[in-house]
Model the fold of this input.
Amino acid sequence: MPKMQEIWTMDCWKGAVGRSWIYPTLIICANGFFSMMRPSESFLTPYLTGPDKNLTIEEVTNQVFPVWTYSYLALLLPVFLITDYVRYKPVLLLQGISFIVTWLLLLFARGVVAMQIVEFFYGMVTAAEVAYYAYIYSVVSTDHYQRVTSYCRSITLVAATTGAVLGQLLVSLADVSYFHLNAITLASVSLAFLCSFFLPMPQKSMFFHRRESSETLPRTDKTGATISCDTPPSCQEDKSSPSPDMGPAPEQQAGNAKPQHHVLRVLVQLSKDLRDCYSSRKLLYWSLWWALATAGFNQVLNYIQVLWDFRAPSHSSAVYNGAVEAIATFLGSATSMAVGYVKVNWDLSGELALGIFSAMDAGSLFLMHFTDNIWACYAGYLVFKACYMLLITTATFQIAVNLSMERYALMFGFNNFVALVIQTILTVVVVDSKGLGLSISTQFLIYGSYFTFIAGIFLIRSIYTMISLNCRNINVVGESSDH
Done:
């Protein structure tokens, strides 16, 4: 009898764990914390150019760092689809292995080729990030989506800030070497890998293993946002189930088909969804800014440490990269939160905001190019990141409010893919030694000009929109007076 009671208790516990949203949320948040708590990341360039690796700044800029962009581009689309097909957890485990390989090579390998291999595995890490953000939606009910989303995203910001502050304190106060910072990071990402093993295996996914085609993220209409009149019905949230006389939905047909036909049907449906969503003018403009700005933002983030090391060489100057990254993360979080409290008609003023803040990004990049003062470079970076985080949060909301969870995930992935294609073009032309191979200071002049181009597009578009609206109002007033 005691043995039977013990078995019954274990079964009940397993059942409760399987039904509860708390257990998987805790585990995925632990995974997110340890994977993002990387105190060495703010000091990567000083580490590579220092006595540990002894690379030149040109080798790091023109030969090592570009490999991350190329590998990320090559891996993003297949990993995005495979992640959904294998239901997230295997890709989280693959990400953990890639993390460990990346930092083992950083610690013990030497030479340009070895560091290029490091960048390849880090490209795998970043391509697999989609699994972290998508996993939780496959194991919790829609009632908890908003809460678990805030937890998962908040914990990564807390971890990034903690890692940057810890790294800066260890370097500045305890005189810890960059090698030992990387050893701490290796321990942290190893813990993240262990956490992945305890994640429950999802029984469904967004595209290939859907239980109910109508299960989507609840809309946030209570915020006051409205669907634009040019948004196609197919791009809006599907709240109703298909009627019996209309036949089964494509996903349901796919579920009854053979595996190869199932995959083909899903891919065809995804391509149709993309076409329908981008036929909305509003979503198209927000997605255009997303792709263009994210490409530039990632490019700046990839090379900002090189610029700092150029302005104030780490072997002869105090390095405050960790403190700056911590402040930048905090400001980015603050501006992102502020968006939720700002009452603005984004349909009318959205493009103007995109133009103005993109112009501020351009100004901060020009400042970083023309100044020789490291503190001015730090300040420019803080402004740049805060402006981008404010706008990307707004763009995310403006796109997500019009879409179901599945279509938002699809547009998110495709927008990032387009951004990565643009970033790859920038890297090949501007950075790579096989291209122009420009100096780091000149690169930031190019990036400032790039954001000026983005600002020009949306400022001109916003002026056209306001003039058209004004003319329309004048015509309406004129017609009313004639009557």
